[in-house]
Design goal:
Elements lengths: L7 H5 L5 H10 L4 E4 L9 E8 L2 E8 L2 E2 L2 H8 L4 E2 L1 H11 L15 E4 L7 E5 L5 E6 H7 L4 E3 L3 E2 H12 L9 H10 L9 H11 L7 H8 L3 H12 L15 H9 L1 H12 L10 H24 L8 H9 L3 H9 L1 H13 L5 H9 L3 H11 L4 H8 L11 H15 L13 H7 L3 H13 L1 H9 L3
Organism: Azotobacter beijerinckii
Pfam family, one: tRNA_edit
GO molecular function: aminoacyl-tRNA deacylase activity
């Protein structure tokens, strides 16, 4: 007998991973399978797998809260950290996209926040992208029979209030010891080494000075955010009382061709890499995605500039730099403040539902955008870059040099909607597009051209010998 052909409705019906379907069947748990949708609805259960020397712990908490490891320690008396290796093994073996909040799935003790059971129903990740399980409160309570309840989550509404309150104050009025300490450290000499692949290529070019051109050096520097920022800074600070620096440096090419020269840039770049690790040892996975997002954003910024009306286009070199450096505060944290970076990385891992700005402000009293902007100021970089970094998440910013901040917002969100980057997806306001003189179609066309050149961009990142 031939197989039955599924109907269109059956093809569109959300499907569960086999391991989750079989588990729910064996438990006899009634659930409703629903598509993920934005907006209000039942609270979503967040699941974090943690561990210490005593073993693993599954922690469940509402999606409108942040899981703070220090606060959790005061509740359970254990110094827990993300069990990332075990989590990846579990997800990979079961072919799950996310960890469902089902204690029976994992052979480990479970702790849940009691506020999970305040609503009539809850949503659980199913392990299938964009497919959720809706479950009644009392049914879910039965699944937590062997778990322990407590109150340990940090409400996001409180974190948003704190961030907004401090953002409204002048940057000099930084609250908290950690934030002040970070800014004071940035005001001393800060050097961030280039990527390991960049260092190898610098040695190659330096060994063949007569055979390399300014374009060769420029093309290399423009793929490395740390080097690009420092080269532009060197050029801006290159003047003396008898030989003042030339007019404003507007791009990496400007810095190399008009001010410093290729040999000086290669010499200084080699000096940055001597005796320093090229990448933080605890952050290689994070840094890989960082380099990719930086280059994609810079390239898209260039494309968006070209798509704008001629009379309103910003300086293309500065726009490219704004995209390349938009996440520079994160790189700065990784290299200059490793303990803070490790703490932040742990909390971002277990709170993927929380915007990074809320996590950073809660833990450090400052965001990566503010750190990047502070460093741009200290390095006497063009004001356009300081504004772009500091205001890039404010779609309504209309102040001085707004075009650069607005373009970064647009580029980051266009890329995020195509799965590149780690910022929460946001709807791009029509007013922002209007102010830039762009239509959605033109912006998407610029993005398509960047993604069509993906192979070439990856070659630039790899920089093979």
């Amino acid at each position: 007998m031939p197989d039955t052909v599924p109907t269109a409705a059956e093809l569109l019906k959300p499907q569960l991973p086999p391991i989750i379907r079989d588990l729910l069947t064996s438990l006899g748990v009634p659930v409703r399978i629903v598509h993920e949708r934005p907006g209000s609805g039942p609270p979503r259960v967040q699941a974090a797998l943690l561990e210490d020397a005593a073993g693993s712990l599954l922690v469940l908490f509402p999606g409108d809260q942040l899981l703070d490891l220090h606060r959790l320690k005061t509740v359970v008396g254990r110094d827990l950290a993300p069990a990332e290796a075990r989590r990846r093994q579990l997800l990979g073996g079961a072919r799950l996209s996310a960890l469902p909040g089902l204690p029976a799935l994992i052979d480990t003790p479970c702790l849940y926040d009691e506020r999970l059971l305040q609503e009539p129903s809850l949503l659980l990740d199913s392990g299938q992208p964009h497919v959720l399980l809706e479950i009644d409160r009392e049914v879910y309570r039965s699944l937590l029979a062997d778990a322990h309840g407590a109150r340990f989550g940090m409400p996001l509404v409180r974190l948003r209030h704190n961030l907004q309150r401090h953002a409204a104050e002048p940057m000099e009025a930084v609250q908290g010891f950690t934030a002040r300490r970070i800014r004071q450290r940035l005001e001393r000499r800060v050097e961030i080494p280039p990527r390991q692949n960049t260092v190898r290529r610098i040695h190659q070019l330096y060994g063949n000075l007569h055979g390399c051109s300014d374009d060769d050096v420029t093309d290399l520097i423009e793929t490395d955010p740390a080097l690009a920022a420092q080269v532009v800074s060197w050029a801006g600070l290159s003047g003396t009382a008898h030989h003042p620096a030339p007019e404003k440096v507007l791009s990496v090419e400007d810095a190399i061709v008009r001010v410093l020269g290729s040999e000086v840039v290669l010499n200084l770049s080699l000096g940055l890499s001597e005796g320093k690790p090229p990448e933080p040892p605890d952050a290689r996975d994070d840094m890989t995605s960082y380099w990719e997002a930086a280059l994609y954003t810079a390239t898209l910024m260039d494309g968006l500039c070209r798509a704008m009306p001629r009379g309103t286009r910003p300086e293309p070199g500065l726009a490219y730099l704004a995209g390349l450096l938009h996440n520079f505060g994160y790189l700065t944290l990784a290299h200059i403040f490793p303990p803070y970076f490790k703490l932040l990385s742990q909390h971002l891992q277990i709170n993927p539902h929380v915007p990074h700005a809320l996590v950073e402000h809660h833990l450090l009293g400052v965001t990566r955008e503010q750190i990047g902007a502070w460093l741009m100021e200290h390095w006497q970089m063009p004001e356009e870059l300081t504004v772009a970094l500091n205001c890039q998440h404010d779609a309504g910013y209309r102040g001085r040099h707004a075009v650069y901040a607005n373009l970064v917002y647009l580029a980051v969100n266009l890329l995020r909607n195509r799965g590149i980057g780690d910022t929460p997806q946001e709807e791009i306001p029509q007013r922002l597009l209007d102010d830039l003189g762009l239509t959605r179609a033109r912006a998407e066309e610029a993005l398509d051209r960047v993604l069509a050149a993906e192979t070439a961009l990856r070659v630039l990142l790899a920089q093979p010998e």
